[in-house]
Structure formats: structure tokens, C-alpha cells
Amino acid sequence: MGHLTRACALTRAAVARGHAVDVLTNSPFAPGLPLESLLGPGATVHRVDARLDKVATVAAVTAWLKDATPDVLVVDTFPRGLGGELVGLLPAVRAPRVLVHRDLNPVYVERFDVARAVDAFDLLVVPGEDAPFAHHPRAVRTAPWLLLDADALLSREDARRRLGLEVTESRPVVAVLGCGRPEEVVDARDTAARLRGTLGARAEVRWLVPTAADGAGSPEALAVWPALAVLPGVDVLVGSGGYNTVQEARATGTPLVAWARPRLYDRQALRLTDAERVADAVALEARVASLLGGTTRKRPASYVNGVHVAVEAIERIALSA
Hints:
Rossmann fold, four-stranded parallel sheet, Glycosyltransferase, 16% strand, alpha/beta, five-stranded parallel sheet
């Protein structure tokens, strides 16, 4: 979901500037999301079946890239591709090549000689957090990327209505995000249930999933995507330390309580602050209760979305080609 969200953020900004963008994704969330309507008429989304094995996925990417004639090729996070396929394919790509470069596990960087793979790119865009090659001579740093600009978010009143609250309801809202691996979505459901039990009448608790299918038809699931749109109506956000969850919470001033989920390449524990990170369910419930009992924070009226600077940097590369 993180890779898809970053790709959509970049696409949305590029389409708004008049560009046509093709998005290639094998995210398991992509089939159920209304990506085209959010991204605009200049975007075409190519959904690779997430159930394909590595060989079939590499074949799909290879076939698409051989048929595509992009003015610019943008790759998110992995300079070698999903399965190392870009090492052999990039030399044949005549268009400028751009890498969205964020933090990676140093074990992966060393094992697969990522430094050499990075050198195949004409531009590295570093989206708001440190990365192994952030000081590369072709790197450009930006503020964090967000799927929506501040003026596209719902008002607090409209967000609370979207979350199913009556106009007369004044209790705070705790939103639990279920958008990671399948077992993590289930864990989010269980966490929401425990919070309802411990908080009682002190708060309204919502379990948010990207689509109804992700909630497996559970009446407790509330399908909301993008979740960023409703954060003005959320008083405490519970999730993981993924890039988008963390950056969206910070940009909107939404208090975040999060686990550092284990990932092969992403290091969520480094992204989270001590105030955001919890180690277990008991600590999570205590932190949420503490935040609800604290002083109400003033939310920022706006935020800087680094995706616009990223698009401008990519435009410069395209024009100089």
C-alpha cells in the first residue's frame, strides 16, 4: 500500500500539471480502489496480479516495459526492480530514469550492490526522510509526499460524518488503520475491539480499511480511502510505522500511536519517535487513553506537500534529455 500511495501522490500532482502518467503496480489493494477517479483523466493504471509468483511478476514487468515508450521512467524504492529485473532492462530504456529513494535496510543495500543499481538513474528524489544515497550528486530532497494537499481534506465536521458520527456526537474519535498485511488487518480489527472495551463511552472507535473487501464483509469495518481525507476528524490515529501513515499523521497534527511492524526492507522503528511507538497491546491502550485525556492539540491549517517539488525536478530532467 505504501508504494502504491507514493506512486499515486506523484501521479496526481503530475496529472494536475497536464502530464499523462501510466502507473504499474502489483499492490494487492489496487484492484479494489477507485484509483482512476482519484488520479484524474490523465492517468492509466496497469494492475499486475499480486498473486503471481516472482517469475511471472518479472515477466509481466518486462513485457510492459518493452512495450512502453515513456518520456520518463520513475521507479519507487527498489532500483533493481521487484525481482532484480531492472538491472537488465534499464540499459535499453532511452528515457531519463528517476528513482524515488527512501530508507532501505542496509543488509539489502550491501547484499544486492544497490549502490551500483542507483547509478543507473539520472535523478534520485528523496521524499522527506533520510536514505542511504541521499547525498548522491544526482539526489534532490523534498518534503514528505502526501496523496492529498491540505485543501483536499474534509472539514472536521464532514470527516466525522464520513466516519459515521451523528452531528450531535461530541466524543473524540480513535481510528485504527487496517491496511498492511492480511494478518495486520485482522490485528487492527482486534485492536479496535479491545479499545472499544477499554475506552467505553469515552470515545468512538473506528476500524478503517481501504475497501469493504479488505474488511472481509465485517460490519465493524468502515471502508475509507484515502484515509488522509478524514484525518481532520480523527483525534487519535492507531496504525503502523509505515511511510504514509507516519507522514500523514504528522502533516495533519494527528496524534499517532503505532507499532513498528517487521519488514524486509523498511525500518519502521527508525521512522517512529518514542512518543509514537508502542511495543504491545497494553502499552497501546494506555497511550491512547493518555492522549484522549490530554490537552486538545491545535491542528495546522495547512502543510507542505513535497510531491510538487518532485514533479518539478522530474520535469527538468525530462526537458534536459
